[in-house]
Amino acid sequence: MTTERIVGIGAGSNSLGKELATEDMTLNIGPQHPSTHGVLRLRLTLDGERISAAEPIVGYMHRGAEKLFEVRDFRQIIVLANRHDWLSAFSSELGVVLAVERMLGMEVPVRAVWARTLLAELNRILNHLMFLGSYPLEVGAMTPIFYAFREREELQRVMEEISGGRMHYMFNRVGGLKDDLPAGWTGRARHAISVVRGRMSDIADLILGNEIFRARTRGVGVLTEEQILQYGVSGPIARASGVDFDLRRDEPYLAYDELDVRVVTRTEGDALARFECLLDQVHASLDLADACLDRLAELPKGPINQRLPKVLKVPEGHTYAWTENPLGINGYYLVSRGEKTPWRLKLRSASFNNVQVLAELLPGTLVADMIAILGSMFFVVGDIDK
Fold first, then answer.
1. Tens-place pLDDT, residues 325-364
2. What distance in Å separates the CA atoms of residue 156 and residue 168, rounded to the nearest whole number?
3. Cross-referenced Pfam families, in alphabetical order (predicted)?
4. Which of 7, 131, 296, 352 ranks highest by number of CB atoms within 10 Å?
5. pLDDT-derived band of residue 37, with 50, 70 and 90 as boundaries?
6. Phi, psi dihedrals of residue 90, rounded to the nearest 5°
């Protein structure tokens, strides 16, 4: 952490009419500050204890994924795409394969569609549980993260069984999924969902019943609906400010058009509302996961993927696919020139837009509230820098 002092002449005056000298301080938070989700830098201008200007400075984790896409074939880009938001790897894989399948005009087996929907919702719950545990930790509550990780392990166990991975699943394939569901896996998944559902009240009671937590978050970091729309903020952060938009319901993909997608919203737009949206979203996703398991049980046995040629080439053209990722809207603009590698694959990540609004959100707030606001924005820095 470094400081830079900029001394100037203030406009205030004392009782004798003399000008008072004031001092603004420029404070760099990061790029390796423990209160941030990764390597983010915030350049703050302080007027005493109040933030007068804020500039998010990104790029410290930039890996050039979009350029790497251009020299890897359509099977290999999946392994890169699932890493930018490491808490939502399955969902990040999904957007790429949906874009490629659209370009190919490929119809995916119905069992793969429902299995993808189920796994996307389980991945969403895993993402939300991480933030439900880590956010209270950032404002001084240590216990909730142990509860959150206990519930995460229930779901991680079934995700690891089906894919072999704990974070980077690499289970999506162009045309479906890598393998069929293991024997008895749906029963174990249903049991894990039931266990997590029964324990969610522990997390809610522990955090929302805490007067200190509510005092630190209620009325803090209020985002208006207008700011949300101006900056392209999406996901639970946008819905906490009253923006009733969710791609799963409004522009459905996978099997969401056959499901009753409950969109969780709040109107307060503060840090507490963002946390409550995330908590309620877990319950909504648990319901969707159960509905997917019910439908999978009704489907007859059949293929889980399409057979592909040894060298997969995508016809010349372009398309745009977007998905409702756990942190917000992810967009994938794919351009092909008929080769085995993309000519261009542009990634629109949710966290990038969500973080930019900090420049308007932080000014006017107290330094003491900065961590409470920053933690409630629910971003992953790899998702910003790509």
1. 999 999 999 999 999 999 999 999 999 999 999 999 999 9
2. 12
3. Complex1_49kDa
4. 131
5. low
6. -60, -45
